[in-house]
Specification:
The complex is a heterodimer of chains A (530) and B (185). Helices cover 38% and strands 19% of the residues of chain A. Chain A has 530 residues and is α/β, with parallel strands linked by helices. Chain A folds into three domains: 233 residues, Thiamin diphosphate (ThDP)-binding fold, Pyr/PP domains (Rossmann fold); 99 residues, Rossmann fold, CATH 3.40.50; 171 residues, 3-Layer(aba) Sandwich (Rossmann fold), CATH 3.40.50.970. In chain A, strands 4-3-5-6-8-7-13 form a seven-stranded mixed β-sheet, with helices on both faces. Chain A has a five-stranded mixed β-sheet with strand order 10-12-11-14-15, sandwiched between helices. A five-stranded parallel β-sheet of chain A has the order 16-17-18-20-19, sandwiched between helices. The radius of gyration of chain A is 25 Å and the shape is globular. Chain A starts with 10 loop residues before the first strand and ends with a helix. Chain B is an alpha/beta fold and 185 residues long. Chain B has seven helices and five strands, in the order βαβββαβααααα. In chain B, helix 3 crosses helix 4 and helix 4 packs across helix 6. Classes of the chains: A alpha/beta (530), B alpha/beta (185). At the A-B interface, strand 2, strand 9 and helix 11 of A face helix 1, strand 2 and helix 2 of B.
Chain lengths: 530, 185
């Protein structure tokens, strides 16, 4: 059975009432919950820890799902469907949401016709990310509601709630998960799919043409919407109070709640599931009802700052050293006590390029020639580690191409090259290459084409000619594309078994006063295994 | 004291099948009607990095992760990871590391190491045979399922034989642990 379909295995449990269960990850539960809520379409670009949401959705044949070329495109496609009148979902990792910020900020003004949910998966502890940003702030910035489940079972319930809230308040809804929720699994009760009728396409320019005159009116509308959401936050069951011991109360959210429940089973809890806008009255009443109140949250002081603004003087907070990294059951006592983080995690075995990976050949040449390599996001970022140690920058998707140009502004004669993967090049490298050609930049851009999005588990993209469901589609020819973008030379070479030829080619191109692209093409070893 | 909760920490390196092993236990526990949670770190593990997984089932499980000194069983597939993860084990927890070499001797294909070690672990757990069988159906593709089940059963048999008869898996069975099906309603 296809691994991606594992969550479709349903278990009929005998009991007082008969119902079905499955062992689902947070991501699978989001997919299942969205499907049950009558979802019609979804779009995303792969990114750990969010990837499995779309993979799971692709197993439902009645849905239209796609890997988009990047998060901005995915957001717009999915949001367009919601404006068109069908329930729709966009999923991304935290840094992916940055790419989609442009449409997100104005989608907040325009609102929706049918429910639209933005699922963002943060990565506290940076298991596989380049930063540790806390996406909850996006709710404040964009004036959108933020839901935050604590477990996979909750994620499934919350996503259905998110669609209802989206339609009721005419707003996109952000649902924020973390790695620990996306990639944890638990027994989840399954339900039936509810079909939701698509709405007719009726022009509404006063709502969807965001020119200044209309945007000014819409800004007024969304400020009022925030007030309504605030009132909703006070009464929704997503903000749950559990009354036990009045001596100790916790205000918490996300997975922190799970750690606390085991360490302090007798305490009282205000668990914020509808995180933003905050339920001020509920928070104040809860704080007043307990002798001691402690705020427990991972990463930034998001709840903390708000509680300080509310003037709840007796509230206690974590030590600032805990704004880094994720919590775990071993740390939670320290967090509650307000102690400084002093437990150093055990060193873990670092990842490395696989045996037989085609990137080895390329990085071997880089090392030998002593090049300064502007890197990008993907497996090849591991080229920065020993023994090759030949990748010198990694900031964000697409920067391998543009950093070559920027670094050369500082050092026009430097031995500088840019490196980008095939999927990453399509994601956001193309514009950088056009920019380099347009602005007469020189240098060599490597596209390490392993014909898959390898780091996230091998998803297809336009240059593979396959869709998310592995159906054939139009194939993007990278070599032709690079020529069209304005590269002076485009070479395609198989690096495996041709190290000498590759080295000669690099020597030749790097000395030329030209903008060159070298496509090192060899399939990913993991892909070949499949 | 009656045991109401089972906590297992798995550790190894990318490619050793830790995720599959913990997946098998998770589904088997679910089919046996326990409340079950699993956590793992697999961001870049496919590239040979450390892999760690926790599976917890029984009553009162909230956290998907275990803390130091909370694991009843430690199942490590690699010496280094055993050194790293040993702190998770309870003082009276069972460390199955001694079985690594024995398990290796039982298999003809290194990819089956996870299945053999799972067989050893199964000897200590209260999960019924039909639930394991269903879990195999869920987790393993058909063409390698039968062979894996054989290895699993062989390893479990070996572990049961080696074990103090008092501690055999079935004696752990505690009806009170049967999952309260109304928890989520």
């Amino acid at each position: 059975m296809d691994k991606n379909c594992i969550f479709l295995q349903q278990v009929r449990m005998a009991g007082k009432t008969s119902f079905e269960k499955a062992f689902l990850s947070g991501n699978e539960a989001v997919a299942r919950g969205a499907w049950e809520a009558g979802l019609k379409t979804a779009a995303a670009y792969p990114g750990t820890p969010s990837t499995e949401i779309l993979q799971s959705l692709s197993a439902y044949p009645e849905l239209t799902v796609q890997w988009s070329v990047n998060e901005k495109v995915a957001f717009e496609v999915a949001y367009g469907a919601a404006v068109g009148g069908v329930r729709s979902l966009f999923a991304c990792k935290h840094v992916g949401l940055n790419v989609a910020m442009d449409p997100l900020m104005t989608a907040s003004y325009a609102g929706v016709e049918a429910g639209f949910v933005v699922v963002v998966c943060d990565d506290p502890g940076m298991h596989s990310s380049q930063n540790e940003q806390d996406s909850r702030w996006v709710g404040v910035f964009s004036k959108l509601p933020v839901l935050e489940p604590s477990t996979p079972a909750e994620a499934k319930m919350f996503v259905a709630e998110a669609f209802t809230i989206s339609e009721k308040f005419d707003t996109p809804v952000i649902m924020r998960l973390t790695t620990r929720i996306s990639h944890s699994k638990e027994d989840v009760t399954l339900g039936q799919r509810v079909e939701v009728e698509p709405k007719p396409l009726v022009p509404n320019m006063q709502k969807y043409v965001m020119v200044p005159k209309i945007a000014r009116m819409r800004h007024e509308v969304i400020e009022k919407r925030l007030d309504k959401l605030r009132a909703f936050s006070e009464k929704t069951r997503l903000n749950k109070i559990e009354r036990k011991d009045a001596k100790l109360g916790f205000i918490t959210s996300s997975v922190s709640y799970c750690y606390l429940k085991e360490a302090f089973p007798d305490a009282s809890y205000l668990k914020l599931g509808f995180l933003y806008p905050f339920c001020d009255e509920k928070i104040k009443a809860f704080a007043a009802s307990v002798k001691k109140v402690v705020v427990v949250e991972e990463l930034d002081p998001f709840i903390e700052d708000h509680i300080k603004a509310l003037g709840i003087r007796k509230a206690k907070f974590k030590h600032p050293s805990f704004r880094l990294g994720e919590f775990d059951p071993g740390l939670i006592g320290e967090v509650v006590a307000g102690n400084e983080r002093n437990i150093q995690p055990m060193p873990v075995r670092p990842p490395r390029l696989c045996a037989g990976c085609p990137h080895w050949a390329v990085f071997t040449v880089f090392k030998k020639l002593g090049l300064f390599v502007a890197g990008d996001i993907g497996c090849y970022t591991l080229g920065s580690l020993p023994p090759t140690s030949s990748l010198h920058t990694c900031i964000c998707m697409g920067a391998g191409v543009t950093f070559n140009e920027g670094l050369r502004l500082a050092h026009p004669d430097g031995k500088i090259v840019g490196v980008v993967g095939d999927s990453t090049f399509v994601h956001s490298g193309i514009t950088g290459l056009i920019n380099a050609a347009y602005n007469k930049a020189k240098g060599v851009i490597f596209i390490l084409d392993n014909s898959t999005t390898a780091m996230t588990g091998g998803q297809p993209h336009p240059a593979t000619g396959r869709t998310i469901r592995d159906e054939p589609t139009k194939l993007l020819d990278l070599a032709e594309l690079c020529k069209c973008c304005g590269a002076d030379h485009v070479d395609v070479i198989d690096p495996v078994g041709h190290i000498k030829a590759l080295e000669e080619l690099v020597r030749k191109r790097i000395d030329q006063d030209a903008l060159s692209v070298i496509i090192a093409k060899h399939p990913c070893v993991l892909k070949k295994k499949k | 004291m009656k045991k109401t909760q089972y906590n297992v920490t798995f550790g190894g390196i990318g490619g050793q099948g830790i995720i599959t092993a913990s997946e098998l236990l998770g589904w088997a526990a679910l089919y046996d009607r326990y409340s079950v949670k699993k956590s793992e770190v697999h961001g870049m593990s496919q590239r040979g990095g450390s892999v760690e997984s926790h599976v917890r089932f029984g009553k009162g499980v909230f956290s998907p992760l275990l803390g130091a000194g909370q694991a009843d069983f430690l199942l490590c597939f690699h010496e280094d990871e055993h050194a790293r993860l040993a702190l998770f084990l309870k003082d009276d927890g069972v460390d199955l590391f001694e079985w690594l070499d024995k398990a290796q001797a039982m298999i003809d294909n290194p990819k089956m190491l996870n299945t053999a070690l799972m067989g050893v672990l199964a000897a200590y757990l209260p999960i019924q045979q039909p639930s394991w069988d269903r879990a195999f159906e869920t987790v393993f593709p058909e063409k390698i399922r039968r062979h894996n089940q054989d290895i699993f059963n062989k390893a479990r048999q070996a572990a049961q034989t080696a074990m103090n008869p008092k501690k055999r898996g079935r004696d752990f069975k505690n009806e009170e642990m049967i999952y309260d099906l109304e928890r989520n309603d």
